[in-house]
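Subject: for your reference before the review

Hello V.,

The reviewers asked for a structural picture of the protein, and I figured it would be easier to keep everything in one thread rather than splitting it across files. Below is the amino acid sequence we used in the manuscript, unchanged from the supplementary table.
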Amino acid sequence: MDVEIIEADRKEDERGWLLKILQRGRIQGQAEFGELYLSAARPGRVRGGHYHEQTTEWFCLLQGSGTLSLADVDTRERRDLALRADTPQTVRIGPRVAHAIRCEGEEACLLLAYADRAYDPEEPDTVPWPF
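And here is what came back from the structure prediction:
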C-alpha cells in the first residue's frame, strides 16, 4: 500500500506551539504546486470515501481525533490509522489508495491537507470507494 506515516515534531512553550507538517524534501519531484486545504468533520461523521488515479495527498489532523481508513484498490489491503491532534503525524497517501476519515469523540476534526495536483472539475481524478 502506497502510504507513509511521518512522525511530526511539535515544538511547544508558554507562547503556544509550532508544527512543521510537510517540508520540500517530502514532495521532491513535484513540478508545480497543487493545492492546500482544510477539511472539517463533525463528531461521528465521515469525510472522504474515494481514491485518486494520479493525485498524492498528505494529511495532518490539527484538531480532534479520528480514524483514517485506507484501502489499496488493487490488492484490497486495508488499514486503519488512529489520528490524534495531540500526537501529530503527517500521512502521505499515494494514488489508488482509497481513504476516508471518521471523526471520533466529542470534538470536531480539522484536517490540513496538501494535494500535489489542483482539483480540476473537468478532470476530477476522484473515484468513489465504499468503506
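For the response letter, the relevant points are probably these. The longest strand covers residues 65-72. DSSP finds no helices and twelve strands in the chain.

Happy to draft the paragraph if you're swamped.

O.
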